[in-house]
Amino acid sequence: MEKYKGGFWISFDNPWETIEFLLDEPKSNDKELCFLTYDANLYGLPNFHTWDKEYQEKIKGMVLARFKDYDGSIYLDGIKIK
User: Is-above-0.90 flag for pTM?
Assistant: First the structure.
């Protein structure tokens, strides 16, 4: 889990579209990684389940590609995506 403590980010063509994913350490362990979503200024975003479904799928694909070698579960704002 130490490897994921810094979280990660995804950026698109426009800098204001950057999404930061910060590890929710109290809810994470070696078998489950829980991330909270923030904008580029580290302002909390609305919960992942409220996002447009097409956009959710795009983000899920990008996150899953990043964690393709991770065997545990992955959660974004409490929503299991793997």
Answer: yes
The amino acid sitting at 16 is W
For residue 43, the surrounding DSSP H or E stretch is none
Stated as kind and residue range, the H or E segment containing 54 is: helix 53-66
The structure tokens listed for 82 are 């793997």
Which stretches in the chain have pLDDT values below 70? none
What span, in angstroms and rounded, lies between the C-alpha atoms of 3 and 78? 20
Q: Where are the domains of the chain?
A: 2-80
User: What pLDDT was estimated at residue 80?
Assistant: 98
In the chain, beta strands by DSSP E: 8-10, 19-23, 32-39, 73-76, 79-80
